[in-house]
Amino acid sequence: MDAMSTAAPDSTALNTQPPLLGGVHHVAYRCRDAKETVEWYGRVLGMAYTTAFAEDHVPSTGAFDPYMHVFLDAGAGNVLAFFELPNQPEMGRDPATPAWVQHLAFKVADEATLLRAKAHIEAQGIDVLGPTWHGLFKSIYFFDPNGHRLELACDIGTAEQVEMARAVAPAMLEEWAQTRRAPRHAAWLHAQPDEGNQA
């Protein structure tokens, strides 16, 4: 074996391609109370509490900031996590961003499941908005005890409709970048069937 074959790879050559991702490992949000959050997600959405990390010092930075980091099974290999940070100022949200913008959406099997979920969530005393029509899917919306907006969505679009939306997406992005006005390429997504415009 010659010296060339045992040399370390050139790091610049390794960084010329984006990584091949294997999905989302977990998504982490802040919570006010870890125990309350775990119990709420179990009761309202059936998520199993699987793991907890707790340290006084943040592993990545070394900073002293005691935390409880809890992990919940969101189904299909997806994980939702929360941090409780008792030494930090009370949590808030970006006042310049409307409450409906930042949210976490979970998939359910079909419209019947979506409607059953709505009934269950409302029975917990939680306000639920929807179902809302989005052309390719229908959704309901509600808030967790930390003020995070959640969505449950069921797919309703056909394969042809999904492909139609995909085909016009580049042109829509380009038009938006130029005008900052809503492009009309996929206006059919927002027209409910009884309005006579379903694609």
> How much helical structure, as a percent, in the residues?
25-40%
Largest sheet: 4 strands, mixed
Round the mean pLDDT to the nearest integer and report it. 92
Q: What's the number of extended β-strand segments?
A: 8
Low-confidence stretches: 195-199
Described by its quaternary structure, the protein is single chain
Shape: globular
Main sheet: which strands, in order across? 1-4-3-2
Could you tell me the strand content as a percent range? 25-35%
Distance between the termini: 63 Å
As a whole number of angstroms, the C-alpha radius of gyration is 22 Å
InterPro entries: Glyas_Bleomycin-R_OHBP_Dase, Glyas_Fos-R_dOase_dom, GlyoxalaseI/FosfomycinResist, VOC_core, Xdiol_ring_cleave_dOase_1/2
Cofactor: Fe(2+)
Protein name: Catechol 2,3-dioxygenase-like lactoylglutathione lyase family enzyme
Keywords: Aromatic hydrocarbons catabolism, Dioxygenase, Iron, Metal-binding, Oxidoreductase
